[in-house]
Amino acid sequence: MTARDEGDRRAGPVAGVSPTCSDAASQRPPLRGSPTPAPPARDASVIWHEVECGSYTADLALWEELARERAARVLDLGCGTGRVALHLARRGRTITGLDIDPRLVAALAERADGLPATARTGDARDFKLNAEFDLVIAPMQLIQLLEDASERMRCLRRVATHLSPSGLAAFAIVEGVPISDDTSLPLPDTREVDGWVYSSQAIETLLDGSWIRARRLRQTVSPAGELEEEVSEDLLHILTAAALEDEAMRVGLRPAGRRIVAQTDDHVGSTVVLLGRES
């Protein structure tokens, strides 16, 4: 499966799960079917995005710092429901979010009421906003969801055309295969919506050729206690900071440094590759 096959797929914060945890996953009881009645009429993509990404905060200080340094106009690629965009907008930055999933864009727009934040539906590989930005950010390993170097360079070209002359682009990536020495599973991410409980737990991280497969067990519990389970999967292309910088230079961007988002008890750290426009 490729990133192209799963157009609305996105990466959440990558958990530090040891491959040995796959043994624990294989010993679980069989997955159960859908509860009756069905969950409330809500978009599943919005709920699971909020469950799996909404509580992650380790990178927010860095995006805030970069936005403060680079003036006010910020483009958030893969903005989702606004985890980063709304955080920056509440601090006075003018934000444009871009996401391929219109349901997430609609959720961000609803939550941005009164804030200097707007959202557009679009593909990070092919967008045209008729605007320049002082800062373009791509959190949550967005660039690693793309299939190969040509796909990444399509994205980088679009970023280059939207950067102001002194602008900066920042791409968060996970370098290598995230493996933890701890064989225990991290605590699940949970949320309650209208009496329904949604839970997502990282269960294994696997190397599959040039891809990292990060798997999560999703559970939905009805108000009556009925359980539904499924295994979801994110695919991240293996990518180093040096390789991304090389690809960027081929489309008119230049390396401008690297920053680190520290690991947490439950999530691996990431490298943020900074890029500027060629003068």
Please characterize this protein's 3D structure.
This protein is α/β, with parallel strands linked by helices and 279 residues long. It is 24% helix and 32% strand. The chain contains seven helices and eleven strands. The chain has helices at residues 21-26, 44-53, 60-69, 83-89, 102-111, 149-162, 241-249; strands at residues 73-77, 94-99, 117-121, 133-138, 163-173, 189-193, 196-208, 211-221, 227-237, 253-261, 270-277. The chain has a seven-stranded mixed β-sheet, with helices on both faces. It has a four-stranded antiparallel β-sheet with strand order 6-7-8-9. The radius of gyration is 19 Å and the shape is globular.
**How large is the share of residues in beta strands?**
25-35%
Query: What is the number of beta strands?
Result: 11
Question: How far from one another are the termini?
Answer: 39 Å
Mean of pLDDT: 86
- Provide the low-confidence segments as ranges: 1-9, 18-31
Could you write a compact summary of the structure shown?
By secondary structure, the chain is α/β, with parallel strands linked by helices. It has helices at residues 21-26, 44-53, 60-69, 83-89, 102-111, 149-162, 241-249, and strands spanning 73-77, 94-99, 117-121, 133-138, 163-173, 189-193, 196-208, 211-221, 227-237, 253-261, 270-277.
